[in-house]
Specification:
Helices cover 80% and strands 0% of the residues. It is an all-alpha fold. The radius of gyration is 24 Å and the shape is elongated. The protein has a single domain, classed as Up-down Bundle (Ferritin), CATH 1.20.1260.10.
Amino acid sequence: MKKLFRLPLLALLLASVSLVSSCSKDDSDSLKVQAHDQNTMMTLMHDMMKKMDAMMKTQDPDQDYSMMMVMHHQGAITMAQEELKNGKDNQMRDLATRIIAAQQAEITQFNAFLAGHRVETPLVPAFNTRQMMAMDKMMRANDLRVITGNTDRDFAQLMQDHHQSAIETSQADLDLGRHTETKALARQIIDEQMMEIKEMQEWLLTNKGY
């Protein structure tokens, strides 16, 4: 009788080992999640938002757009610098380098506009309403992201939301602003950042890791 049960018992043991091995592989390949308050990229986003929330608004669309975008761009630059410091993927590091160059140049243009501009009337409160809606939407989208602690993935995810808020704020200036200088910058930002969002989405589809 012992001989009769030896083969089934061996098969059962082999199946158990296979199942354990399979579970171990799944565990090692599974998505690893990091708490938002422990994530460097998310902390940089929240720090940027605190500065923008503290900005005194004038209700002049071009003035407020320019002041806000200087802070917003600086936030993107800081995130891109974090990607260059700790990211590993060549494409994301190249994107970070391009973001820094483009947004530093645009900050220079915004500051040049602000240096020669004085608040104009009539005031347009609708611009700030749309601007803050875009920023609130950005932070809600950030808070819904699955953050992994992988610098390249977190950069690609959070920068999409960051870019989308810049696009929506730029569209508000196109609709409500009065100056050709800010409108030209708004169009440039929309065109550049729409292309960069597409690049990040395509990269994530290939490199999301789960």
